[in-house]
Specification:
Order of helices and strands: HHHHHHHHEEEHEHEHHHH
Number of helices: 14
Number of strands: 5
Shape: elongated
Strand content: 5-15%
Low-confidence stretches: none
Strand order of the largest sheet: 3-2-1-4-5
Mean pLDDT: 88
Helix content: 40-55%
Distance between the termini: 81 Å
Oligomer: single chain
Amino acid sequence: LDDKVTIVKKLASEGIAACCQLIGLARSTYYVKVNQPKSEDRFLAKYEHLKNLIKKIIHNNPAYGFRRIQSELKDKHKIILNHKPLQRLLKLWGLSLRRSVKAPDKSGIQEILDYLGVRANLLKTIGHILPFSLIYTDMTEIIYGAGKLYLIAYLDHTTKKIVGFALSNHPDTNLALKAYLMAKLTIKRELKRLGLKPKEIVIHQDQGSIYTSYQYVDQLLKDAFTLSYSRKGTPTDNPEMESFNGRFKTENSQIFIEAPNEQEAIKLVKEQIYYYNQKRRHSCLNNTSPNNFIKSLLTNPATILAKN
């Protein structure tokens, strides 16, 4: 039908009545179709009342795509709008162009890591590993009843002990430094107990912004630690922490989810890390806990040199 109307419109100068008769289209139908608003116009008219609101959302949030605009309409303005008509509206209103958000400039540390590539990962270059001479760290989310917390932990390669950790609802450098400070004090204490003086202490982490910030790197280097980094987007470069995070959350998820507030969640996480260090048996430690394994090293120092 639309094709017939289009043809008659093109040949209208030859006489609409004759054209309609030749093409088999009633004149009344033709005039109804010609005079009614286009479907596109009807569509725009239906949503005209949202135009200024959507423009305002985009102006205030230039990085938003259609999905975030959709969520903003729903959560803040109680307006339910399917993503398909929203995408169509953005296009028809000329608002569908991607907003350019300038990527942050790389820090000098990140440029160095990009240059080093795989060489930034020192794990394969380390020979004999003494207790508390290779430490892993990573950040993970802890889900509890009323929300989530971020946990950063530091794990010793040899004894499997969590030497430092911190919890917060803000995943930032301050959280990492808080966990690191505990780790540094624990490492020094345990090395003194064991009478060990490793040539270097390597701390291995991913290339997230927390671990490549000037504040974090500067502090660790001042404390004479050696830094090692996983490749970007390669969690398999830090398998010890991936294993710990996965196991810790799986074994304790039911405990954490029952926490009614942040304070209780923090208390429960601390209790489970204490349990992990003091009581949880590890097959790689002859089915003893990290702290009991360290005690065995104190009573039998020869095992320190044999342990890798």
